[in-house]
Amino acid sequence: MRNISDIIEHHLKSIITNSPNGSIEIQRSELADHFQCVPSQINYVINTRFTVQKGYIVESKRGGGGYIRIRKVQIVSKARLQELLTEELIGESISQSVGNAIIERLLEEGLVNIREATLMKIATSRNVLTLEAELRDRLRANILKQMIAAILLK
């Protein structure tokens, strides 16, 4: 059985997928009423499941007529995706959770299959990279950059 966060995430992703422009505008309180949960649960889902690393841009306007806009970032080209991932999102160092989010995005976009994604996660996990945290995060960044370059060349 899925938890409420998974259900909300699935609901929002299905609306975005069916949206002609790949974006939605929602009101947090209305969504909370719909799922009979507290508004902070909606915040949690948006803040953890709709991140830049996962391919989303979130904008919000507070106040009486406030809204939250979630937009799926479209991939223009493999070269631009590689630049975005390696230079802007990965950089010189990356945590395991952010690395895994990027790998999940590659999986969602169909650029890797489940087996490749699993291998990427294992190769960059703290169980394999048994070094001090700073060095481990730098090594993880280098490994991910090389994997992404190889994937996007195929």
Q: Which features does this protein show?
A:
154 residues; mainly alpha; 3-stranded antiparallel beta sheet; 7 helices; 59% helix; globular
Structural class: mainly alpha
Shape: globular
Strand content: 5-15%
Regions with little confidence, pLDDT below 50 for 5+ residues: none
CA(first)-CA(last) distance: 37 Å
Q: Mean pLDDT, nearest integer? A: 87
- Report the C-alpha radius of gyration, rounded: 17 Å
**Could you give the order of the helices and strands?**
HEHHEEHHHH
Strand order of the largest sheet: 1-3-2
- Strand tally, please? 3
Number of DSSP helices? Answer: 7
Main sheet makeup: 3 strands, antiparallel
Helix content: 55-70%
Which assembly state applies to the chains in this document?
Answer: single chain
What report would you give on this structure?
There is one protein chain. By secondary structure, this protein is mainly α. The chain has helices at about 5-20, 30-35, 40-50, 80-90, 95-110, 115-125, 135-154; strands spanning about 25, 55-60, 65-70. The model has no long low-confidence stretch (mean pLDDT about 85).
Set down the secondary structure blueprint.
Layout: H1 4-18, E1 23-26, H2 28-35, H3 39-49, E2 56-61, E3 67-72, H4 78-90, H5 96-108, H6 114-123, H7 133-153
Antiparallel strand pairs: 1-3, 2-3
Helix pairs in contact: 1-3, 2-3, 4-7, 5-6
What is this structure, in a nutshell?
The protein has helices at residues 4-18, 28-35, 39-49, 78-90, 96-108, 114-123, 133-153, and strands at residues 23-26, 56-61, 67-72.
